[in-house]
Design brief:
With 653 residues, the chain is of the alpha/beta class. It has helices at residues 3-8, 17-29, 34-40, 46-50, 80-114, 126-135, 145-159, 175-184, 191-201, 210-240, 269-278, 282-290, 302-312, 346-350, 379-393, 417-423, 429-437, 458-469, 478-486, 500-509, 523-537, 556-567, 584-598, 608-625, and strands at 53-54, 62-63, 246-250, 260-265, 296-301, 316-318, 334-337, 356-359, 370-371, 409-413, 442-446, 472-477, 514-518, 546-550, 572-574, 602-604. It has 24 helices and 16 strands. The longest helix is centred in the N-terminal third of the chain and has 35 residues, at 80-114. It binds FE(4)-NI(1)-S(5) CLUSTER with Oxygen and iron/sulfur cluster (SF4).
């Protein structure tokens, strides 16, 4: 059964029983969801789907006729190649800017913390602070925590500007790869600089060479992966703790019938981390009890949920397509949001219940929500104020409307690079040895979102299942990780789902065959790990038996991630077609030509069976090229598909 056949079955919008139960309720009660709006948008614009529309100036908007009969040039003379490449360039810039601005927010609070100007933040991982400081040339000997942090902040603040010829974390990249980037002119310099330059180049009448534009797209994305995102990850680890293996729970079953439920939705741990602390405040717990609740239950959604799951084991209610459905449980007192991936519709759905939507970032306001401006200088205090608002909403809950449709599924998270290498005795050697021997064939990062155009989580779960069955270690982040968690693929005992080689390694270490590496900014961990393996073997990243996959991606950030992963030398398979097919030249470059210059390329394959096949063949080809034992490509066949779903539906509610 292919993904497309699956999605053709009426009602199969998701593979998850919790989501299905809430979709049924939404339909019964006339509550509109993302799937209804997707249906209402049909047919979606064919020009836009191909990337052939442009509204970059007021001589337009323009479109190119893909059938060659209508206009072939915009008013300014831009052809399909230029329009498609410019659109893609702006998409990459939007995604890179989102991650990098999140990184900057953390960096600014980190700098303020070092000056003693915040409340609720401190250095939690002193070792990592000093390790990163030494890496980046900051003196640490006989210096206080705050002195080191302050100097580290200065170094990283300069990474955003125009003073640098290359970003600080590029020293983690193998020399051969850096030489390739230099030769192509795509060494990322300043984070803001590359993004601003992309906006400049895509203005009418600037960069009219699609190859040149796409190369700058790679450079812009590299300023995200090795810049903004890496800064976000590393400083979050220093402030909130470097993740270690931790048990947690996932799906709508993590909500509690008799506690105050607060869902943290968005991305930045600056907010979610202090809210988790505030929910343990004895005075607020007392207040909750005075209203008849037995406690305060903080749960996560999307990436900020991954941040607090990774570091504190906080349970996660779901991924991207669960954000409306979690409200339909009727069990949420508050949904607290910061930014990114928060559908404006959550405010409308919340109005059907007693749930308060509390927005917190001055750069992300939601009409209809209650805005509490999150000022990190009073972080702990604002967090308590928000938790208090949630507690005070509890008496308004209508228990008769509470529907918690499933029992939670257990999952293990917390696999930072430090934790992975730590589990292996502190060096990449055991992992490299297992890959060399063929016990583990290779590793694949399965990342990214949900997209209502596909049955929710099917592709993530199926692709992962087939990879681990074939002894390929799967690394996950973002909404992908939540999908695998719900399906029960992220428990130490899920080692039994893996092929014999991967299974033996996982059982020896007590780890799952699918390792949760964090939120989407934490894809920086994936490339850092790849670079460490390449460095250990003294090869370039593109020689390793690695691949990336974003089976259900929707966001501009996912495009930026895909671009920096490919530019770093890791071939990546997308499950949703990007809007580039209006230019055969752009497609040729991304799906083929790039291989000759960065040693990696993109593929688009919506069918998880075919995607798994493609990736397995890619990995065996890389093994062969490295002189490792390999399976000949034509002996690798498609596996028998099988949908695995975790979390049995119960009749409750
Ligand atoms: O940054 S995986 S839907 S929540 S974009 Fe968004 Fe996609 Fe989820 Fe996180 Ni990432
Ligand atoms: Fe049309 Fe060119 Fe303006 Fe785009 S930049 S809207 S193609 S005239």
């Amino acid at each position: 059964m292919s993904a497309n056949q699956y999605s053709a079955q009426p009602g199969r919008l998701t593979v998850n029983p919790d989501a299905q139960a809430m979709i049924d309720v939404a339909r019964k009660e006339g509550i509109e969801t993302v799937w209804d709006r997707l249906a209402a948008q049909q047919p979606q614009c064919g020009y836009c789907a191909l990337g052939l529309s442009c509204r970059n100036c007021a001589m337009g908007p323009c479109r190119i006729d893909p059938f060659g009969e209508g206009p072939q040039k915009g008013v300014c003379g831009a052809d399909a190649d230029v329009i498609v490449a410019r659109n893609l360039g702006r998409t990459i810039a939007a995604g890179s800017s989102s991650h990098s601005d999140h990184g900057r927010d953390i960096l600014e609070v980190f700098a303020a913390m070092a000056r003693g100007e915040t409340s609720g933040y401190q250095v939690t991982d002193e070792d990592k602070l000093r390790r990163v400081a030494v890496e980046l040339g900051v003196a640490t000997e006989d210096r206080s925590t705050d002195e080191v942090a302050s100097d580290l902040a200065d170094v990283l603040l300069d990474d955003y500007g125009s003073r640098r010829e290359s970003l600080s974390f590029l020293h983690r990249v193998p020399e051969v790869r850096k030489a390739k980037w230099a030769e192509l002119g795509i060494t990322p310099r300043g984070i803001d600089r590359e993004n601003v330059e992309m906006m400049h180049r895509t203005h009418m009448g600037v960069d009219n060479d699609y190859v040149n534009l796409l190369l700058h797209g790679l450079r812009t994305s590299l300023s995200d992966g090795w810049g903004g995102s890496m800064i976000a990850t590393e400083l979050s680890d220093i402030m909130f703790g470097t993740p270690k293996p931790v048990m947690s729970q996932v799906n709508l079953g993590v909500l509690s019938r008799d506690q105050v439920n607060i869902a943290m939705h968005g991305h930045n741990p600056l907010l979610s981390d202090v809210i988790v602390d505030a929910a343990q405040d004895p005075e607020l717990l007392e207040l909750a009890k005075s209203y008849g609740a037995t406690g305060i239950n903080v749960v996560g959604l999307c990436c900020t949920g991954n941040e607090i799951l990774m570091r504190k084991g906080v349970p996660i209610a779901g991924n991207h397509l669960m954000q409306e459905l979690v409200l339909i449980t009727g069990a949420l007192e508050a949904m607290v949001v910061d930014y990114q991936c928060i559908m404006p519709s959550v405010v409308d759905v919340a109005k059907c219940y007693h749930t308060k939507v509390i927005s917190t970032s001055d750069k992300a306001k939601f009409p209809g929500a209650t805005h509490v401006s999150f000022d990190p200088s009073r972080g702990a205090e604002v967090a308590r104020e928000i938790v208090r608002m949630a507690v005070e909403a509890y008496p308004d809950r209508n228990q008769e409307r509470v529907r918690i449709p499933v029992e939670p599924v257990r999952m293990m998270g917390g696999f930072s690079v430090e934790a992975i290498l730590g589990a292996l005795g502190g060096t990449p050697k055991p992992l490299v040895d297992a890959i060399v021997a063929g016990t583990i064939r290779g590793a694949v990062a399965v990342v990214g979102c949900n997209n209502p155009k596909l049955p929710q989580d099917l592709e993530h779960i199926e692709l992962t299942r087939q990879l681990i069955e074939n002894d390929i270690l799967v690394l996950v982040t973002g909404c992908a990780a939540v999908a695998n968690g719900k399906a029960g693929q992220m428990l130490p005992e899920s080692a039994a789902l893996a092929g014999p080689g991967l299974r033996s390694v996982c059982e020896a270490l007590g780890i799952p065959p699918v390792l949760h590496m964090g939120s989407c900014v934490d894809n920086s961990r994936v490339i850092a790990l790849a670079a460490a393996l390449a460095g250990y073997l003294d090869v370039d990243i593109d020689q390793l038996p690695l691949a990336g996959a974003a089976p259900e991606w929707y966001s501009e950030k996912a495009v930026a991630i895909g671009a920096y992963v490919v530019a770093s030398g890791i071939t990546t398979v997308l499950g949703v077609q990007p809007p580039i097919f209006g230019s055969p030249h752009v497609v040729q470059l991304l799906a083929d030509g790039l291989d000759g210059v960065v040693g990696a390329k993109f593929a688009v394959e919506p069918d998880p069976d075919k995607a798994a096949l493609l990736i397995r063949r890619h990995i065996e080809a890389k093994r062969e090229a490295l002189g490792l034992p390999f399976v000949p490509v034509d002996e690798i066949r498609e596996a028998v598909p099988q949908v695995t779903v975790g979390g049995a539906a119960t009749a409750e509610g």
